[in-house]
Amino acid sequence: MKIEIWSDVMCPFCYIGKKNFEQALESLPFKDEIKVEWKSFQLDPTLEPSETKTTAEYFREKKGFPEEQAKQMTNQVVQMGKASGIDFNFEKALITNTFTAHKLLHLAKKHNKSSEMEEELFKAHFLEGKNVGDIDTLISLAVSLGINVEEARESLQSETFDYEINQDILEARNNGISGVPFFILNGKYGVSGAQPAEVFKNALIQTYEETVVAFKDVQNDLSCDSDGCSI
């Protein structure tokens, strides 16, 4: 069963959704039959790759929110994060263009380490206050997961994964996805937002029973075709 997840590095609800989804996944007896594919999405592609903003600056300059309102909003997310095992540090987080970070995610996907890289990027951005638009920072994350430093540098400084990233974004648009996180379960159901683990669990079970189990039952049916009958 395939789960596609559209996400952006600077989206706190994507981090919460990841934690809740993984908690749900771990509780399922068929977890080893599930393949997770992370997809790229940019919440704000207008940001300059060379600039960084604090969370307060971003909310004030880009969204027009007063500092007190922005603080209330982030405090609410901090409490949600704690419930999912995340200690958000919005005072340290640096908002920047995430396109280069998505290149790293696609490189990690090539090495079957996309979920691990998602985690490292979220930690770097939300917990450690690292600039996830900075190439040297991203290379260090790649190396920490065993990816060759020169391969990482070449991938981040070239257009190697630009097509894949833009295709993910186009696919999201074609599927009517305007916000993240967004989960598509085996091409059948969509789940939007940082849902509780129990919601993910129920959705995964329903999808598994309706698509995977049903398909297995069809395969096991006694039937005849032009070559004869299976007995």
Automatic annotation (TrEMBL):
Gene3D superfamilies: Glutaredoxin. Residues 3-204 form the DSBA-like thioredoxin domain. CDD domains: DsbA_FrnE. InterPro entries: DSBA-like_thioredoxin_dom, Thioredoxin-like_sf. This is DsbA family oxidoreductase.
